[in-house]
Amino acid sequence: VVVRSNIGETVRELREAAGKSLKDLADDSGVHWNAIARIERGERQPDYDTVVTLLGALGKELRIVGRGR
Amino acid sequence: MSRVEIGKTLRELREAAGLSQVAVAERAGLHWNAVARIERGEVSPSFASVLSLLEGMGHTFEVEDKSIMMEPIVRLMVPCEDARARKGSAKKTDLFGVMSSIFAPADAFPTRHSFAVYLTLTDGHGRGFGRIVVADDETDNVVYRGKEHPFDFDNDPIALEGYLIRVASCPFPKAGLYRIDFVYNNTMIEKCYVHVRETP
Fold first, then answer.
1. Which residues of chain A have a Cβ shorter than 8 Å from any chain B Cβ?
2. For residue B87, how many other CB atoms are within 10 A of its CB?
3. Rounded distance between C-alpha atoms, residue B193 and residue B198, angstroms
4. CA distance A18 to A15
5. Interatomic CA distance for residues B59 and B52, integer angstroms
6. CB distance B51–A5 less than 8 Å?
């Protein structure tokens, strides 16, 4: 999955694909469910660290790739 | 990748592209000072800033399954004095002073000896940490515990990679058989032995 600027949408897609509720992801990541909800809706710009934490709780990680592949 | 690691990577990518902090800052719409602090891992940057910097340098992020961590297989473990890649050859490594015994005069104990352990590893996945531990084989008393070294494996299951780990000033309280353990992610995955003997 190539990351678009709306990382929140990516988080939501991955969370739903994993069959997890906001509460589940909050428990797994230690990020408050309300903060996750706002990130997913694009109302809040998450820190890099928060994105790594959320993706990690979903069994994912970020990898740098060249553009235009 | 942690905040510190991404900062370091952003710097490496920028330098590889021959760009200044001012240039990448402009492309990403950031202040150069913010770029400097992100590169040093001093601040927790927004995800959007990191992505803008990457995109400004012709890269982007992909989300992937977390890499599986797996300890490597040790194909060779040799105590020696030194190992050097042969000049002009990508394939050959010269091992110097391969040893099975260390000699010291009877009145020199406890004695200290510096040596190295040459390892060839294969089939590792992801990042792990390895160290050398030396113990008296009879009593299991640990006499030396080396620093942890990071190992980064790309998923290349057939490549053999050579590593030289130095053991500086390892104390041997008495003559005897000592076991050298290669401990990876806190699990001993290979061992070899060295005899410490009194000089006849």
1. 1-3, 5, 7, 10, 14, 45-52, 55-56, 59-68
2. 7
3. 17
4. 5
5. 9
6. yes
**Closest CA of chain A from B73, distance in Å:** 25
> What ipTM goes with this model?
0.92
- CA distances A28 to A38, A60, B160, Å, are 17, 13, 37
Closest CA–CA distance from residue B182 to any residue of chain A (Å): 29
**How many residues comprise chain A?**
69
C-beta atoms of A65 and B62 within 8 A: yes
* Contact state of B50 with A48 under an 8 Å Cβ cutoff: yes
Residues B3-39 as b/e (b if ≥16 CB within 10 A, e otherwise) read beebbebbbebbeeeebebebbbeebebeeebbbebb
CA dihedral of A69, B2, B7, B11, whole degrees rounded to 10: -50
Q: Distance (Å, rounded) from C-alpha B165 to C-alpha B145?
A: 12
Contact B143, B135 (CB under 8 A): yes
pLDDT by residue, tens only, chain A of 69 residues = 667 668 999 999 999 999 999 999 999 999 999 999 999 999 999 999 999 999 999 999 888 887 754
- Tell me the pairing of strands B59-65 and B101-104: unpaired
